[in-house]
Amino acid sequence: GVNYFMSKGILDDSPKEIAKFIFCTRTLNWKKLRIYLDERRDVLDDLVTLHNFRNQFLPNALREFFRHIHAPEERGEYLETLITKFSHRFCACNPDLMRELGLSPDAVYVLCYSLILLSIDLTSPHVKNKMSKREFIRNTRRAAQNISEDFVGHLYDNIYLIGHVAA
């Protein structure tokens, strides 16, 4: 579809213009879009910068991100790339919060991955013994030091009450 729009002069062949088109169009086939963005990382970079996560709670920002850029079903390099790009953008949008909480993009990456795994754990019918809040706090604080127990507890509560971040 993008190639058709470019051939008709409707869309410029620039990553920034393609990213704006994708960002503003809600009815694209997300499976084909995922393949396209995996092949066109330059467009993915520009698409990520269109997101404004300022003053958003981390799980809500992650949900918004995955509404525009659908997460792959399997873990792998593409998911890692998405989480890395999200983490850097989230930190860029919230520098004061990052300083206040003492978080780096790497720590946000760990938190995002933890939130995705927690989401799967809490929503999957195949998981019999759901992760408790205490277990999530312990595991997350081991993986990303210097994070407040209260903050991690709020992350758990958000996933527990609102649901999956990458659905």
Overall helicity: 55-70%
Q: What is the ordering of alpha helices and beta strands?
A: HHHHHHHHHH
Global outline: globular
Could you name the ranges where pLDDT drops below 50 across 5 or more consecutive residues?
none
The secondary structure category is mainly alpha
CATH architecture of the largest domain: Orthogonal Bundle
InterPro entries: Sec7_C_sf, Sec7_dom, Sec7_dom_sf
Protein name: SEC7 domain-containing protein
GO molecular function: guanyl-nucleotide exchange factor activity
Pfam families: Sec7
Walk me through this protein's architecture.
The protein is mainly α. It folds into 2 domains: 1-50, Annexin V, domain 1 (Orthogonal Bundle), CATH 1.10.220; 54-166, Arf Nucleotide-binding Site Opener, domain 2, CATH 1.10.1000. The protein is built from 10 helices and no strands. Helix 6 (77-93) packs across helix 8 (105-123). The chain is globular, with a radius of gyration of 17 Å. The relative contact order is 0.11. Residues 1-162 form the SEC7 domain.
